[in-house]
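FIELD: query
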Amino acid sequence: MPHRNHLGKETLRLEVMRENVSASGFRWRSPTWWADRTNWSLTVPLFALDARGRMTHLAPQFDEYLLPVDFIDGVPQRANAPILVPIEHQAYGALKLGLRDYLGKNGFPGAIIGLSGGIDSALVLAIAADALGPDRVRTVMMPSQFTRTFSWLDARAMATKLGVALRTRFRSSPRSTPS
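FIELD: result
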């Protein structure tokens, strides 16, 4: 998998750039870069360093963002204190961006997600609703006689909480289905 090792490497990238900037005395503003393998986009966060290797600017990762940097006599002027976000936020942002880009590039109007009431489908639903907006996401649950009542209730609660439409199609007589 080409992009499995990209998350969590901002500190390493930053240290390498700091060493080079400090040794040369040059300032650095990183470009955004895109790897377009299987239509998934990965970005390195946009940042600026002064001649001492101090970070002066940092754009949010996995967001469309314009990072203006003011220079006086060739020196980037310090903006708000940049903060690297935890790896979990980066991963969630990457998933949202990847989903939004993939559906957009391939002309899909939205997503249809099968809900089970479990954590996996709940996470996929949360990512899709955040990435696309609840109006572009539909959910389906297909309970059977083996589906537990709490699974059906959890799926319905998740869809309701996120403002996403839920359709239920019974495969056979369910054991007990709430009305």
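FIELD: remark
The longest helix spans residues 87-105.
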